[in-house]
What we know:
By secondary structure, this protein is of the alpha+beta class. 31% of the residues lie in helices and 34% in strands. The strands form two sheets. It has a two-stranded antiparallel sheet. It has a two-stranded antiparallel ribbon with strand order 3-4.
Amino acid sequence: MDPEAVAKQFVDFYYHTFDTNSPSLVSLYQDSSMLTFEGTKIQGAAAIAAKLTGIPFQQCHHSISTIDWASSSSPASSTHSSSRSFCEKII
Length: 91
């Protein structure tokens, strides 16, 4: 499969899941993973899990504007995306 198509499928899956059930993204992360969320860098699966399960938004929608990917000879490759998000905290 085309690496660009794989990156697009992953980004579509990731942001759809983020918008509908962000805690379920935890399984995608490892101890060496890094998540940048609202400018804050979060390192490691446990810290990322804590962040994803603690997000105070009840509704969120991302609009993907760019997808950048880099293939790798290792089993993991890198995918970066930019998005605009609309998130609403309902009290």
